[in-house]
Amino acid sequence: MRRIVAVSLVLMCALVTLLVSPSAARLGAQDATPAAAPNVVAGQLAPLGQQFESSPGIDVEFVNEGPTAQAPGQSLVIYRVTLRGGEVPSHIHPGTTVLTVESGAMSWTLQAGTVTVTRPGAAAETVTAPGTEIVVNAGEGLAYNADVVHSARAAGAEPAVVLIAALFEVGQPVITLTDEQGTPTT
C-alpha cells in the first residue's frame, strides 16, 4: 500500500502542471471556467486560499506566501495539510519548517536528520534517531531543516490538520519525494 501511495505522489509531482485537482475540477464544472493546476514551486505557489487534493487522502491549502528581505532567495510560506487517510512517503522540503497540529493527531517518522518536538508545558525535545515515530497531537509541533527526511500520516481515524510555516528556497518544489536516505526518487 505504501508503495502505491508513493508512486501516486511521484506521478502527481511530475505531472502537477498537467493535472487539475478533483475539488478544482468540480468548481470549474460549476462555473464553466477551467481551473488551473496547482503550482507547488516556492515563490509561485497557487492557488492561494483554495484547498486541493495533492494525492489520495492528502489535501493541501497554500494560505499565504511572500518574499523576505532578511532572507534573499527565500519565500515565507504558510500552508495547511489535511491528512485524511493518505500517507506522505519519505520526503524533504527546500528549507526550514515549523508546524503545529491544529486538530487530530499526526504520526511523523524521522528517517534522517534532527527534529525538535514542542509540547505545551514541556521542554523542547531533540530527536535524531532514524526510524523514530513521533505522534504529534493538537497543539503540539515540530521544527526541522531542509536535510530532514521524514514521512507523515494521520495517527488515528480522525483527519490530522497541520498548519505549517516555512522558509523555502524560491524556485524549488515545496516537497521532494525521496528514499529513506534522502535521495530524490524522481
CATH topology assignment:
Jelly Rolls
In total, the number of strands is 13
Give the N-to-C terminal Cα separation. Answer: 19 Å
CATH class: Mainly Beta
Uncertain residue segments: 1-32
Major sheet strand order: 1-2-3-12-5-10-7-8
Rounded radius of gyration (Å): 16 Å
SSE succession: HHEEEEEEEEEEEEE
Compute the number of structural domains.
1
- Biggest sheet character: 8 strands, antiparallel
CATH architectural name: Sandwich
Helix percent reads 10-25%
Summed up, the helix count is 2
Structural class: mainly beta
Strand content: 35-45%
Can you characterise this structure?
The protein is mainly β and 186 residues long. Strands 1-2-3-12-5-10-7-8 form an 8-stranded antiparallel β-sheet. Strands 9-6-11-4-13 form a 5-stranded antiparallel β-sheet. A hairpin with a 6-residue loop joins strand 7 and strand 8. It starts with a helix and ends in a 9-residue tail after the last strand.
